[in-house]
Every structure is written in structure tokens, then in C-alpha cells.
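Look over this one:
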Amino acid sequence: MIALSLGYYSGGRLADLYPQKKILMWLVFAAGLTMSFLPIVNTLTSPYFVKNSLFGSIIVSSFVFVAILFTVPVWLLGMVSPYVIRLKNQELETTGYTSGSIYAFSTVGSIFGTFFASFLSIPIFGIKETILISAFCLILISLIGLIPDFKKIFCLVLLFPIVVNFTPEVKRQGLIYEKESFYGLIQVIEDEKLGYILDINQTGRWSVYHPDEVLTNLYFDYFSPLYFLLNKRDNLDILIIGLAGGVVSRQYFYFFGEKNLKIDGVELDPYVSEAAYKFFNLSEQKGLSVINADGRTYLQNTQKKYDLIFIDAYVGALYIPYQLSTKEFFELTNSHLKPGGILAMMVTGKSRKEDVIRCLTQTIKSVYPYSFFFPSGSRHEFIVVGSKDQLNDKFLNLVEKTETEELKKISFDISQNFQEIQPDKSGKKCLLVDNLAPIELLSEMDRVFRW
């Protein structure tokens, strides 16, 4: 918006000084040419902004990153509207009509561009390709307007395909698969220790898969001992919201497969599921149903009830889906639990005192009278458990209840570190509801003050 405002102002001034069609076409050409550089600039700069935050602030980092990408092309495009108005306003009597027509046409174009990009070009071709299509259209329009001067700009046109195709290969070590989906950049990295790692938007380990190892030594392992908190052990129905590569479901089938488990794995992005089938051997998990949908939408449209509901859709405090964090959502999960059922979810943070974790745990506590939390082995992820039944004794005796030898060490860690969530007596209102769930703001405050 700032760049557009500057473009409107400078475009108007330039149009008054030089009201020539040729200059207008050069502005369009320059906008298209600078837009064609965006994929390259993104490749070179995004790794820095993903791994580092300026002044400890995601908001500041995001603003600077977007400014670097879009300021110049948006500024140039902002100059076009006042320039067109100036060229069309040859008669003072039709100034209002001309201005209104141009802005109406511009608005219609914005609406078309929004829907075309959102529902057609990005899902079909990708974000990079959509940007290049836009750049090509701008350059093509400018060339049509500059036909008399075509010979003069022919050498510059030749630079366009060179610029587009000269994208530096800045590949991550071990990268074996990359796919850009509507929801983000999906990458699979081969790691000597962990096997295959699923990463989305370069934000961390969304899933891991080692052909010879089931336990990962990561937070995923802490979901498995929760099986022993249940009164029922056979014919379980389990729901996983945030299936990704199927780490948790794989462990459940490995340890408890003979108990006739049925697992529904909900994953928002179908391309993530595609990568999971290709590299994480998802097809070996007999009894798993993969559902590509939003987790909350799925629950709203199903009558099925579950013994266990796992939520593994949060990655740090930045990737916490708003619709999966509110009291209304947890009430929805509660209505889909069978008697004695348990909800468990992973949240990430340096400390449980962080506002994001505090508000999430208090929101869960408002729905589930018996709520607990415990850190995973890394102590940077917490598992939050909610139930309508008291679980204190079951947590205390978890090691004795754990029949699987490989899980006893994890069960011991849980039994030693679990705490029941108590109502917040600090006086701070911290209930996340559909009407007000400022997840991003809470995360930003945690980051800034921690920094």
C-alpha cells in the first residue's frame, strides 16, 4: 500500500511533466521486468529471513522481506493509473467520467487477478510461475505499445528469458524432493541420522522417516505411551489432525497393530500426502485412512467418534492455525470423543509461561476439566492432554501400565514431569475464542520480550 501510494503520487507528477504514451509503456515494461526478478530475489533472501528475525520480531522481518520483494514493481505499477488518466483527460469536461472509468476498470482487473491467481494459476502452476506469467503479460503489453521503437528495445527483450531462467541453484544439503503447493513449499531432505525429513516453508521437521527405526527421539514418540492411559485397549478409533508424513500413525501401527486399530489421518495439503506416500512409505500403514481436508471442517462434517484425538498441526508459535486453537474447536473435539477418550496435542515454546502456551492451555482447560501437560525429550515441545476423566493416577502409574518395553523410558519421563493444568489466577484474560484469538500477536510479544 505504501508503494502504491508513492506510485500514485510520482506517477501523477511525471505525467504532468511528460504526458507521453511512450513513457507510460516504458513504465509498464519496467514493472514487468522487475517483477521477473522476484523469484530470484526470493531465492536469495528468503533463507535469511526464515532463519533469522530482525529485532526478534516476525512482523518486522516479514515487513522488510515483503518490502524488498514488492516495493519497486508495485511502485511502478502504481504510476500507471494516474498516467493513463492524464493521457485520457484531453477535455476538461470529461475528467470525472474518464477517471471513474479507469478506476472501475482497474478494480475489475484486481478482482479478476485475485480470483485467477487464487483458484487457477497458483494451484495449477505455482506461485513462481504465476509471478512470471504476470511479468510476461506486462512486458507483452508494453511491447505492443512500443512497436515503433521495437528495434531499440529488442536487446532488452532478449534479457527477459535470460533473467527468468538464470535462477541460482541454492539447494539445501540433502534435498531430494521439492514441490510448491497452494499452501507452501514442500521439501524432503535425506538425513544420515533421521532418514527422510519433511519440511514445509523451511520451518523445521514436520515429519521424519527412517526405514529401520520407528522411534525418532523427537516429540512424536511421546504420543505413543498415551495409549496406556485408556481403559479400552482393542478396536480403537484414532484421529490425527496434521498427519503430514504419518509418524505418529506409523508408531501406533507398529506397537499396537494387533489391537485392530483404525486411524483417520487428516492432512490439509494433498501434496504433502503425495510426498508422504512417495518417501515415507505411507502405503505400508494398513488401517490408515488419509483425508485431505481442514481438521476443523472434517470434524464439523463427520459423526464419527474417537478414542484418541491427536493434534499435530502446530509448528512453533508462528504456524498455529487460528481455527484449531479456540474454545469452540476444542468443544468440537470434545463432542467427538468416546467415553474415556483423550485429546492430546503438541505445542512448541521455550517455556510454559509464554503467552501462547498459557492461553492455549487455559483454553483447553475451559473445555476439558482434567488437563495436563508435560515436556518432550527436547524440552522445547510440550504435549497437552485433555480428558473428561481424572488421569492423575494413570499418569503416576504409567510405567507399570506400559507393556511395550521400548516405550518404558518415555513413559517414565512423562510420569516424572507431568503436571495438571490449573486455572490461571493471574487476572489476565487468556481464553481464545472464534471472535478473538490473537495468536500472532501473542507469539510476537513472546518473541520480542524474549529477544
In short: The chain has two domains: 2-165, 214-450. The first helix runs from residue 2 to 17. The chain has a mean pLDDT of 84. Residues 274 and 282 are 9 Å apart (CA to CA).
